[in-house]
Amino acid sequence: MEEKVLHNPKIEDLSEIKLVGFRVLCDSEQYLNEIPKAAQLLNERMNEIQKVTNSSVQYGAFVVDNYSEAEDGYWICVQVNEYEDIPDDMVCLTIPPQRYAVGKHNGANYSIRDTYARLHAWIEKNGYERQLDKWHLERYHSWNNNDNLIVELLDTITES
Asked: Is the entire prediction scored with pTM above 0.70?
């Protein structure tokens, strides 16, 4: 059996990110089914969103330990330069400047937790601390096939 390793993890500092898309709110066991549906809908309706920076990249956003109803759920979005004429059934989300540990997941959506576990171990080993009450991101480069996703996992961190 091949040992799964985290390939080329890195630290990335990002400035503020403006996102437009859909908020997915469901029971935790349903996210594996509901997020791909929302990603497909977002892809189909991309032409309705103004000022998109890169239509070939989708962002997932979530707060691990959310303490408010406003932060509960998962957002699937595209990045925009500025908010303009947002469709009525879509949402805006502004992610503040943050530092991330970044690891790449290439595979099925149901195995993404394994990649997160390896990223979390790398974070701890390298002296960083996860910021569970901050926005975390998933940067999707391929989302059409649930068995073959290409997604960068961006886990919010600080120096410990």
From this structure: yes
| CA 157 to chain CA mean position, Å | 15
Between CA 102 and CA 104 the distance in angstroms is 7
Please list the residues that pair with 150 across neighbouring strands: 106, 142
pLDDT per residue over 114-129, tens digit each? 999 999 999 999 999 9
63-110 confidence digits (pLDDT tens): 999 778 888 999 999 999 999 999 999 999 999 999 999 999 999 888
CA distances to 25, 108, 109 from 33, rounded to whole Å, are 12, 12, 9
> What are the φ and ψ backbone dihedral angles of 100, each rounded to 5 degrees?
-130, 145
Contact 61, 74 (CB under 8 A): yes
Q: What is the DSSP code (8-state) at residue 106?
A: E
